[in-house]
Each structure stands twice: as structure tokens, then as C-alpha cells.
């Protein structure tokens, strides 16, 4: 499974022949100035919630690639009004089987408003179960006991979790969340993009080390295999 990081909370997963993109915020992210949005290919775009720093480039990428947007009903309806015909609406607790695997929408504790002020429905995370591996994309969230339900249904290989604090969990809560989900490998996200969420990389790595977890902090544009 190939994973490419495009900054903030945006990751592209290459799963078999499918390219699955999460929360694209690239063109207005100064840290991602070296990434050309028009070069990104995606078959599916999964949106955790409606905030601009998670959806800004979804419309452009979807129209460029005829992608399917998978998100809360309110978000897919909003994109439908923008002329995007390929959408799959969901809500927390539901799941869908797509060509690359099964996607379950799970709870996240956060707000969700689309860029024009339209309510974005519930904030969410996703558990994605593929023939290769299963992973948890937490979205923007606080630490919540709901995370303990995930390993009761899934054998999760790794998780993507916010660590920037202020708007989401910090690294300390993320390590507790990793224990709740029963994973040893965490890919950090939602950090450094804005002054409010700047992190000390050495400090967060030390917290992860003390928790006996592997914390992966990718550089923007970097691709890894997991």
C-alpha cells in the first residue's frame, strides 16, 4: 500500500488499481506550494468533514478525474449542487463496500461547516478495510472512548491521527487513542500548517517513544509503503 502525503490531513492511498484521496487542502496551503493539484489523480475522495482545510481542493480534483466523493450526506449534497454527479453519501455508523475495500464512517468529536457556511453534518473518521491492510483515518477529533469500539470490529494495522492540538487531539491524547485502537504505528496529521497547530517534532517523537509507538511524520510530497 503506497501512501503519499500532501500536507495538513491530505493523503493519497494507492490500493490496488484504485487511488483514494483524503481531505484535500493543497492549493491554499503555503507548505504544499510545490504540489500541483492538477497532477493529482484520484478515483475516490473521502472527506471527514466540511472545513476548508479539508475540502478546499475536492471540487477541482473530482472534476479533473471524475472522482467519487464519499462523505456525510450534507457534504455530498453540497457538491452535487456544484455539478459533481458521482457522490456516495454516508453517516456515522454506516459502511459501504467500494472497489478497494470496505469503508466504515465512525464518530469524530469536532465541528463541521462547509466553506460558505452551510452545515456539513457530523464530523467523522473512517476505518478502511482492504485486502492488504486495515487502517483508521481519525479525521479531526478529540480523544473519545468511541475509539475503543474500533478494535472490537477491526484488526487495525495503523492509524492516521491529528497531533497539532488546539483544534484536535495533541500528541499525548493521540498516543492514548492509539492504545484504544490497538495500533503501534501512527501517521501524524493536522500539524504545522497554521501557527495554532505548530509542533515540536523532537518533543512529539519523544512522547511517542515513551508510549512505545512508532510515529511517522511525513514530508509533504513524500511517498511510503506500508
UniProtKB/TrEMBL annotation:
Entry keyword set: Hydrolase
MF annotations from Gene Ontology: hydrolase activity
Record InterPro entries: Metallo-B-lactamas, RibonucZ/Hydroxyglut_hydro, UPF0173, UPF0173_UPF0282_UlaG_hydrolase
Any Pfam family the entry gives: Lactamase_B_2
Superkingdom, taxonomy of origin: Bacteria
Domain Metallo-beta-lactamase: 7-190
Assigned protein family: Belongs to the UPF0173 family.
Name under which the protein is recorded: UPF0173 metal-dependent hydrolase H8S84_04370
Amino acid at each position: 500500500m503506497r501512501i503519499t502525503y500532501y500536507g495538513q490531513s491530505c493523503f493519497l492511498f494507492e490500493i490496488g488499481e484504485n487511488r483514494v484521496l483524503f481531505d484535500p487542502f493543497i492549493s491554499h496551503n503555503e507548505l504544499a506550494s510545490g504540489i500541483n493539484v492538477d497532477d493529482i489523480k484520484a478515483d475516490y475522495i473521502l472527506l471527514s468533514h466540511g472545513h476548508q482545510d479539508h475540502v478546499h481542493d475536492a471540487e477541482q480534483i473530482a472534476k479533473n478525474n471524475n472522482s467519487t466523493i464519499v462523505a456525510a450526506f450534507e457534504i455530498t449534497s453540497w457538491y452535487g449542487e456544484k455539478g459533481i454527479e458521482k457522490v456516495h453519501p454516508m453517516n456515522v455508523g454506516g459502511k459501504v463496500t467500494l472497489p478497494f475495500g470496505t469503508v466504515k464512517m465512525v464518530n469524530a468529536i469536532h465541528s463541521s461547516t462547509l466553506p460558505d457556511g452551510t452545515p456539513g453534518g457530523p464530523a467523522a473518521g473512517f476505518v478502511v478495510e482492504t485486502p492488504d491492510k486495515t487502517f483508521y483515518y481519525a479525521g479531526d477529533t478529540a480523544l473519545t472512548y468511541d475509539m475503543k469500539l474500533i478494535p472490537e470490529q477491526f484488526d487495525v494495522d495503523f492509524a492516521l491521527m491529528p497531533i497539532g492540538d488546539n483544534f484536535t487531539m495533541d500528541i499525548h491524547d493521540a498516543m492514548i487513542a492509539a492504545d484504544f485502537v490497538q495500533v503501534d504505528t501512527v501517521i501524524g496529521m493536522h500539524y504545522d500548517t497554521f501557527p495554532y497547530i505548530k509542533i515540536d517534532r523532537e518533543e512529539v517523537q519523544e512522547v511517542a517513544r515513551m508510549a512505545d509507538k512508532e510515529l511517522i511524520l511525513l514530508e509533504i510530497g513524500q511517498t511510503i509503503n506500508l
